[in-house]
Amino acid sequence: MPKIAPHFSNKLISWYLQNKRELPWRNTVNPYRIWLSEIILQQTRVLQGLPYYLKFVEDYPKVEDLANAPEDEILKLWQGLGYYSRARNLHATAKLIAKEMNGSFPNNYKELLKLKGVGDYTASAIASICFKKPEAVVDGNVYRVLSRFFGIYTPINTPVGQKEFKQLAQQLIDEKQPGTFNQAIMEFGARYCVPQNPDCANCIFNANCVAFQQKKVAGLPVKIKAKPIKKRFFNYMVVLSENERTILQQRTSKGIWQKLYQFPLIETLKDVDLSLLKEHSQFQDFSEELNIKNISLFNEKAVVHKLSHQHLYTRFWIVEISRLSGQAEETDSAIPISEVKKYAVPVLIENFVSEFFENY
Length: 360
Description:
Blueprint: H1 5-19, H2 31-41, H3 46-59, H4 63-68, H5 71-78, H6 85-100, H7 109-112, H8 120-131, H9 140-150, H10 159-172, H11 178-191, H12 210-213, E1 230-241, E2 245-247, E3 249-250, E4 261-262, E5 265-268, H13 274-279, H14 281-287, E6 292-297, E7 303-306, E8 310-321, H15 326-330, E9 334-336, H16 347-356
Parallel strand pairs: 1-8
Antiparallel strand pairs: 1-5, 2-9, 3-4, 6-8, 7-8
Helix pairs in contact: 1-11, 2-3, 2-8, 8-11, 9-11
C-alpha cells in the first residue's frame, strides 16, 4: 500500500463531507435507487441526469414497477439521455431482479457484475455504498485524480492502464467507509480536479500532487488517440398525407437507437440533392406505393448529430402525398400525425418533431 494512502483517504473524505453536493441518491443506501442513479449517470453529467432520476423514481418507485413497465414507455422516458442500450439493459435487469431474485439485489461485487448493463464501476459503487464492501470505483474522474496526484503516465484506455488504476484505487480505499471514499473521489474529480484549468493553487493536495509539482497537470491522464470519426449521411422521409397520417418505423437492427422509432431512412454515401436522392434504390422502394405530390427539404444545412464514434449529417425531407393506401396504410408504421410525439425517438428526431409538428 502506498505510504500516502491513509493521509490521502482521510483528507479526501474530510473534504467531501464539507463540500459534497446534496443529491437524492446520497440520502439512501437502497440498492435499487443507487443502481438506477449509476446507470443514468453513465456517460451523463449530474445536472442532465438528475431530472431523469427523479422522474424514474416517481414513476417506478420500486424495482417491480420498473420491471412491469412496457419497454416503449421506458425508452420514451429515457429520451434525450442517449446510449439507449442502457435503458434496455435497465429494463432487462429490473425484470430479472423482480421475477427471479424476489426483488433483492445481490449484495456483493461478483454477483452484481453478472447483471446486464452492470460493469466494474457500477458493481463497485453498489457494493460499497449499499453493502459497505471495500470495492473501489474507477471512472474518468478517478483516473484524472489518481494520474495527476501520483504522476502516472500509463494510458487509461488500455487494459494495462485500467488494471493499474484499479489496483491503486483498491489500495487507497478506506475499508471502514468504502462508499463514502468512492463518492468522495468521484466528487473531487468532477468538481475540483476537473479536465481543464483546475484550481491547483488552492487544491488540498497540491503539496503532494506530482503533476502540480512537475507542471504536468494538463498532460494527465494520458489517453491513446481514438479511431477516426466516421461520417454518415441520413435522409429522413417525413410523410404527410392529406388525411393527416405519417410513417414511423422501429429500428430493429443492433447498433445505435435499437428499438427507437424514426421516419423512413435513406442513408447515402454523401450529401445529396433531390435528383440524386430519387436515383437511390432505397428511395425507389420507399416511393413505390406512395402517390407523391411534392417533396421539399426542411433543412438546407444538414443537422450534425455527434455520437462517440460517428457524426450523423441529417436532412429531413417533407414528402406530401394524397393518402396512405395499400400496404403502406396497413402496416403498423402508419400512424396519425397527432400521435408522433408519443413515440420514443432519438433526440435528433425529437428536436425536429418539436419544431415541425409544434401545432399538431
